[in-house]
Amino acid sequence: MRGATRGAPALASAASAGQKPKRRLIAVDATRGLALVFMVGIHVLPSWTQNGDPTFVWSAFSGVGATLFALLAGVTLAFLTGGRRPLRGHAMTAAKASLAVRAALIAVLGLLLAYADPPAAIILVYYGAMFLLAIPLLRLSFRTLMAVGVGIAVLGPVMIHLTQNSLPTLDGYDPTLTTLVTDPITLLSVVLFTGSFPVIPWLAYVCVGMAIGRLDLQARSTAVRLFITGATVAVVVWLSSALLQGPLGGRGQLLAATPWSAVEIEDFLTWGPPPDLPSTTWWWLTVLAPYTSTPFEVLHSLGIATAVLGAMLLLGRWAARVVQPLAAIGSMTLTLYCAHLLMLATGFLAEAPWVSFIVQMLAATGFAVAWRHFQGPGPLEHGISLATKTVRDRVSNRLEERTPRSRH
């Protein structure tokens, strides 16, 4: 089961940060909208041709939407805690409390959606866990966040490689509230290590996104650097994996250590899990296959996601009107993502994938543009924002009451 999503919008962050990032927010929301398009395409459109070969959609976009959303989750966290000028003192403490509530609400929503059993993995529980684990990192500097992100990208897959055979799984199913109550240990194992979007390696995307969110995203130079750096990382990592798998003998090592045929290994490298990434040899960590969460796959996806964000920031500067429909979608992707999963669960238009894709995109765009014009944030986004704002205000007020006032 494969999927992609994102969490709550960052539109409200500008006011709390005392900034004027209108252009930046449009570009970031447009990037979220683009990620949603990628995700819907992967869920709905054909993955293989009549000859059994991967389609262009699968080859180009498998995993891109999910990792792009995870990167933007980090950007959102940075926005919600001050952007370029991180909040301090009571303001940061209150923001952390509100983010913990946001994480819990998103995770619960994912647990509820799992009862619909759509034919796609649901990322919301993992997304909420990423938010929660990232809260202690909010005060870190740009360089430290980048170092932590790269470290997690390298060491996280190693941890999974060492532990995956000894940890419980749900055999590809998404956790529900029932899982939380009856088997919390398995739920924790799935979310952190053995699930579709294991948080341990995927937290790398959030850390890098948080670092990016602390930059001046209004500056053209920042967008250019993001694009060039991301594209360079993606190309270098791809070439490194190809070198290890080819001339340096990695493919042969996979064949020798794994009870699969050459065709089965080739299929796995094309389509990714299921089954899970084998742990028969460390050479499996050098592959670059979708949804495998190897160091090479994580770093490659980080490069692509960063380059896409840089490109969208540039496009937002040069053609703001062009990205407006995507920005409308991106401002309420939580609502639209949930609606998309529920539609998948019904099986409606399942036999007409291109019709389904066009209908969903037209419906999402029309709804988002109209709702944003008349109501503002999407329905789910609005509800979560109200809850988190209430928590933030209460915590802030209590902290202010406890602070001794100086005498003049």
Written account of the structure:
With 408 residues, the chain is mostly helical. Helices cover 69% and strands 0% of the residues. The chain is built from 18 helices and no strands. The longest helix has 26 residues, at 220-245. The radius of gyration is 21 Å and the shape is globular. The N and C termini lie far apart (64 Å). 48% of the residues are buried. The model is unreliable at 1-24 (pLDDT under 50).
Annotation keywords:
globular, 408 residues, disordered N terminus
Beta-strand residue percentage? under 5%
Structural Rg: 21 Å
Uncertain regions spanning at least 5 consecutive residues: 1-24
Number of helices: 18
Order of helical and strand elements: HHHHHHHHHHHHHHHHHH
The overall pLDDT average reads 90
What coarse outline follows from CA principal-axis ratios?
globular
Distance between the termini: 64 Å
Kindly state the percentage of residues in helix: 55-70%
Task: Give a brief description.
By secondary structure, the chain is an all-alpha fold.
Task: Produce the secondary structure layout.
Elements: H1 13-17, H2 22-44, H3 56-61, H4 64-80, H5 89-113, H6 124-134, H7 142-163, H8 177-182, H9 184-194, H10 199-213, H11 220-245, H12 250-257, H13 262-271, H14 295-318, H15 320-330, H16 333-346, H17 353-374, H18 379-402
Helix pairs in contact: 2-4, 2-14, 2-15, 2-16, 2-17, 4-10, 4-14, 5-6, 5-18, 6-10, 7-10, 7-14, 10-14, 11-14, 14-15, 15-17
